[in-house]
Amino acid sequence: GVDLRGQSMVMNSSTAYMHQDERFLPELTVREHLLFQARLRMRATMAERAERVDTVMMELGLDKIASQLIGDQHGQAGHHISKNERKRLSFASELLTGPALLFVDEPTTGLDSYMAESVVSTLKGLASGPRRCTVVATIHQPASDVYRLFDKVCFLVGGRVGYFGTLAGLAPFLTGLGHPPPMHCCPADHVMRLFVDPEDPEGSEQRRHRILEVFAAQEKEREQNPGGERTPVAAQQLGEDRENGNSRSYLAQVGILTQRDLILRRRSTQVFKVRLVQSVIFGAWFGLTYLRLDITQYSIFTVSGALFFCMMILVFSGPTSLAQVIPPQVPVYIREQRGGSYHISAMYVAKMIADIPCEMFFTFIWAVITYWMIGFRGSRVIGSLSTEFQDFFAFWAALFLMTLSAFGLGYFASFATPPNVPEIGFLLTLAFLLPSMIFGGFFVNLSIIPTWLHWIRELSILRYGFSLLNIVQWETYGPVPCDPSFCPFSPSGTGQDVRRQLVGEDTWYFDVIGIVGLGLLFRVLALWMLLRKARPAVFDSAAPDSGTLTLQDDDVTEE
Q: What is the pTM of this model?
């Protein structure tokens, strides 16, 4: 035997763990998933990684579905790979790095008898193939065809070993105890009836106690045999070709994950397609509602309403869509992080980087439609260097900054939400944005609110955004014409008079600091929530903590 106590680095670099339930990002194809896993976990050239992926797919019969989207197994038929294929894809993900030891948690759960036998046959091929990967699997009540595929079995009773050895050795062991297996009966079923018999609980307890005592005595005799003495194992004895987890640098992880996130967004119906249609249709409808506003002192508050709702729609749509899309993805990210693919913060940084081009695109479409259809600006101070296009880009930059900042709230709500109840994230987002809207400066005059509510005003991202848009619109605007019958700012009133009346003496850099500050605050809180969620103590689906593992010949048991 080989003692692996104190050899945690050896175990981490030589073992892999396959969970009972498969979790993948549905927007990736089978080949893309494996290529990204190879890029994150292998120090090799692109050609070597591609060759390794092709080899593993051929071994597990995944080459025919390499270009098919993984999809959601609960989605529409024909738009996702099968349960059996998902199991094999899980095997492939772990075999990329050539582990010497593969732990598999109940691989046949949820499968029919045919698929269960197919999965276990795949495991058998891994153990007997050229890689010689030792496979340790937990399984409940296997059918006889499945049972015969195993080389060795270990029966556990109350956490103690009742039998560990070859299949051929089980019958003599039970016969020696006076319980020979019946003819044409699966030995696993016979053992279960010996250990658990509802009609004879006392007899079952006596049999369990007897079997445990006899096996423990036999094990003690084997341990006294010098040939079974355990010795420390050197690192190179296990998985000498196995790559270490987190083998790529942090910057490399961020770069790879950014590429993956951009693919996910492009293929996501809710993140890309719905938002694109929303930007075009809502923008056109909004533009038609305020089409070519005649900017006078009489229409100042109509312009303010257009600015406020133009901003509010963007600030609401981004975070609420994130809060519904990201929660189901979080368990996948945490599982990959626990498996050593990358650091969880690298995934978060990658998402923030991917936000930039995506939100630049959506806000640009929105700004192009609304700015020119509504007719913001329209008059400038004579001699100003400002041009109409510069005014437009200032308007677009303000919307982009607010949207990007509001995404921090979306991330915080997403990471604080249980993965199976994304609606909670939507409600958390609204719980912050609705008060922010009320205290945004359009519905309520901020100068008359009670003192004890000033803190809500200071935390309103819409307040800073509304002020910034008004500065963009009015700061360099020339005289604002008025009807003699209605001239609230006097006939000589200018854009600066309007800006002071609407938002006071706020400056553009004050508003920018407020928007960026709130965005950073929520992103830091989101990172804290993500790191807290990624801890094994609070994440149920994480891999089990390492125990004391002992290697005996080609098999492993956990003590």
A: 0.80
